[in-house]
Design a protein that fits this description.
The complex is a heterodimer. By secondary structure, chain A is mainly α. Chain A is built from 11 helices and 2 strands, in the order ααααββααααααα. Chain A has a two-stranded antiparallel sheet.
Chain lengths: 290, 322
């Protein structure tokens, strides 16, 4: 029981797959924090909106979730852009906690509107079923597909940040907004793009989650807690840290729920978060605040 | 003189209410006093020291469960049980505060949120004690007036403590931490100790209120006891009224409770969204809260009488050498 290579390997695979999804879930949150220094409390609700747009595409238009994904991401990009343009721009630079609270209020509004529009029912798209056997390990197809897509999107985002002009502008603004301005970066536009991108990445994560987990309009707030734990373990604003945190958390959750108790799997994320903070108050790869 | 008259009128009003009010009005007033009390408690840690906490509800839940278990299993009288809830919450807050208060800004806010989720999961999982998701049933409370007195008493205690705090060196230490923690540290303030004291103080009262709440509603389950909504309401009340002030939580708590009651009754399906919109509107249009708006109109005396006394004392000394 304690040491069975096949079992441990299997758990590890599950943990890594879960971690890949958490990584995408937290990536948008982390980008927004990096540039705006704001924890977007409504990120989970943007994820939920993406998931339900995908669900709607599937039931009304018969679209495969992976086909619907770019559409829901595009819509949420627009939503994120508009939120930044008309709401967040007004509170940035004011009291440090003002922006945090605005996103908190926003999440309440979106949850309530979601309940009105989509109803309180739990939805899922059980389109991809069955599993693959690879070298003695079982990999459910839906999870594998979600993991691969999440990884592809993560790699694409990192490449975008690294090699495009806009990506460089985002990184420059995250590192030092004042210097970025003097270097000719349109910081305001960069913020609009960043929030749009964050929302789009959240929507993509939502589409993928719809493949493997049932969702209701209130699920976003539970998912966001995991995303918070991920970026706090990794360190706020550090993309590499976020991915590391996601991996650690995914594995810890799978092992925790298997070896200790199912209910403990969920708590694992937060226990781990507190343990990491105890040792490193700024997360594994983060920079200290203030 | 008019001030003493005003205080007397308020006390008489608060005292007379249970004699004339029906149960509906009483229950509205109970939730009003409860949320105002939670707002005051939150204000001590988050308003004064600036450590925005999204997890004060942890202590509310701990108090609720402690009191419920004491009442059910040991038949302890409810006031003692509620007090025990507060004491346990305060004890628990010491090691937790020691860990959490090393965090800054968003790390602290989210760390505390995570803490409340852990507490909720523990309440679910620890079935032998908490009965898990089934929840705990308490003997029903027949006389709402006792609940009313209890919450009003706790609320009044919090107003008194905050008023003392606002005029004390301890309160100034907390404000110094909010404005510039590093600077406060350099000036020889033991910031760790001051933060921890504020944290414990702001954990004790939610614990007591949680205990009273459990007794009042005679049923608790993990979701109710550790609901983020409880935190949120307290936070919005403080912001609406004015953070780090004596009267802010009262003004905000009363306004918000009445507004929430109104929204809930009028718009049952979208009251959460309206609540969210209210949060945003408060931040956008009343960044310093209603207390500040009142003060600017001269309806409310400026706070921190300590500083004003200090200023008054120094003025003649400066004039003397000439």
């Amino acid at each position: 029981m304690l040491w069975e290579p096949v079992l441990w390997g299997q758990l590890l695979i599950h943990g890594v797959m879960l971690g890949g999804l958490y990584g995408l879930l937290a990536l948008g949150l982390n980008l927004v924090f990096g540039v705006m220094r704001v924890i977007n409390f409504a990120h989970g609700e943007l994820v939920m909106l993406g998931a339900f747009l995908t669900f709607w595409g599937y039931t009304a238009l018969g679209l495969h979730p992976l086909v619907a994904l770019p559409f829901s991401a595009a819509v949420l990009f627009g939503v994120g852009w508009a939120l930044q343009r008309f709401l967040m721009e007004r509170v940035l630079g004011g009291q440090p906690m003002a922006a945090l609270l605005v996103t908190f209020g926003l999440s309440l509004i979106i949850i309530n509107v979601g309940l009105l529009v989509f109803g309180a029912d739990i939805r899922s798209i059980p389109l991809v079923s069955g599993s693959l056997r690879v070298a003695g390990f079982v990999i459910p197809k839906a999870r594998g597909l979600a993991f691969l897509t999440a990884m592809a999107l993560t790699v694409a985002t990192v490449a975008f940040l690294r090699w495009t002009a806009l990506g460089r502008a985002i990184r420059a603004t995250a590192q030092h907004p004042e210097v970025a301005i003097t270097c000719g970066v349109d910081v305001r536009r960069t913020r609009l793009v960043t929030f749009g991108l964050g929302a789009a990445l959240g929507a993509a994560a939502g589409s993928l989650i719809m493949l493997i987990l049932p969702m209701d309009p209130q699920s976003g707030s539970l998912l966001i807690l995991k995303a918070f734990a991920v970026i706090i373990v990794g360190g706020l604003g550090s993309v590499a840290g976020g991915l590391l945190g996601a991996l650690v958390l995914g594995i810890a959750e799978v092992f925790g729920s298997f070896f200790i108790a199912t209910v403990f799997g969920e708590v694992m994320a937060y226990v781990l978060m507190l343990l990491v903070l105890l040792v490193r108050p700024a997360g594994l790869l983060g920079i200290a605040e203030r | 003189m008019p001030r003493a008259l005003l205080v007397g009128l308020v006390l008489a009003g608060v005292g007379a209410v249970p004699l004339v009010a029906n149960n509906y009005v009483l229950s509205v007033l109970i939730s009003l006093a409860m949320f105002t009390g939670l707002a005051y408690a939150w204000n001590i840690i988050s308003g004064y020291t600036g450590y925005l906490s999204f997890g004060q509800v942890t202590f509310f839940g701990v108090g609720a469960y402690t009191a419920a278990i004491l009442i059910i299993k040991l038949h302890v009288a409810w006031p003692l049980a509620a007090l025990a809830g507060g004491v346990l919450a305060a004890f628990l807050s010491m090691p937790l505060g020691w860990i959490m208060l090393r965090l800054r800004g968003p790390y602290f806010a989210i760390g505390m949120l995570g803490l409340s989720r852990i507490a909720e999961r523990i309440a679910f999982a620890w079935e032998p004690v908490t009965d898990g998701g089934r929840g705990l049933y308490l003997p029903p409370v027949l006389d709402l007036r006792a609940v009313y007195w209890a919450v009003v008493l706790v609320g009044a205690a919090l107003v008194g403590i905050t008023s003392l705090l606002d005029n004390s060196r301890f309160g100034l230490r907390l404000l110094a931490i909010r404005e510039d923690e590093g600077g406060a540290d350099n000036l020889g303030i033991n910031t760790t100790l001051a933060k921890l004291q504020a944290f414990v103080l702001s954990a004790f009262f939610p614990g007591v209120l949680g205990g009273i709440y459990a007794w009042h509603v005679s049923y608790i389950d993990p979701v109710m006891a550790f609901a983020t909504q409880v935190d949120l309401t307290a936070i919005v009340a403080v912001l609406l009224g004015g953070a780090g002030t004596v009267w802010g939580p009262l003004i905000g708590g009363v306004t918000l409770s009445l507004l929430a009651e109104f929204l809930w009754a009028r718009f049952p399906f979208i009251h959460t969204a309206l609540f969210g919109a209210l949060v945003i509107a408060t931040v956008l249009f009343l960044p310093k809260g209603l207390a500040d708006a009142f003060r600017r109109r001269g309806w409310l005396a400026p706070g921190r009488a300590f500083l004003r006394r200090l200023a008054a004392r120094q003025a003649p000394q400066e004039a003397a050498p000439e």
